[in-house]
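Subject: Protein entry, chain in single-letter code together with its fold tokens

Category: Structural biology, sequence-to-fold work with a learned token vocabulary.

Notation: Tokens come from a learned vocabulary of local backbone shapes, not from coordinates.

Start of record: The labelled sequence and token lines come straight after this line.
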Amino acid sequence: MKIEGMAALVTGGASGLGAQTARLLAARGARVAVLDRNAAQAQAVAADIGGLALPCDVADADSVQQALDAARGQHGPARVLVNCAGVGGAHRITGKQGPMPLADFSRIVQINLIGTFNVMRLAAAEMTALGPLDDGERGVIVNTTSIAAYDGQMGQTAYAASKGGIAALTLPAARDLAQFGVRVMAIAPGLFRTPLLDELPPEVQTGLGGSVPFPKRLGQPAEFAALVAHIVENAYLNGEVIRLDGALRMPPR
């Protein structure tokens, strides 16, 4: 699918991987709606790229539907969805403070996994109602999982479970939507330079980057965005999770 002229939705688009993805899609000629809980940051990104900022809680069905309705009203129906919204959190199953609070586990799964599915199902319903493009495609969905889905570290049970769920739903989602010409892909990034990692001391960042086999550095959000753009444009990519991690395999801790 050609990016130019298409309407695109990017959740978690106010910062990090989502913001860079929104910027690249806009630079390639897409009409981009930046969906994020942080309305001020979303507005800053949207203003920078000539896009549309929309407040959105991905885990809330009404919030997502309102955002999609607003985006459609301004940009027309979206044929591209990139789900980058998500949260982290570290907590062992049990320890000196007792068992992990169930609410902590539920919150991460609710936002990362259920939130991703929530936006996907609503966007897909709109895509499947559109007419096909010249190549038969109606839409492309790119979700964000993590190498933690495969190499979850100690304290990452909730995060790994949520990202593992996204990885696992990729193929059945692609099969569900194949009859409509809507592709579903996922990217599993490794250690990337995001606002969260930028808060760490420089020596810690250097150490983390040095753990990557090659290149020995943290990933750049622009590299994630470039892969998103390639997925959108390469019609034969479907139903697959692509690790983007410099061959990193995470140790237990």
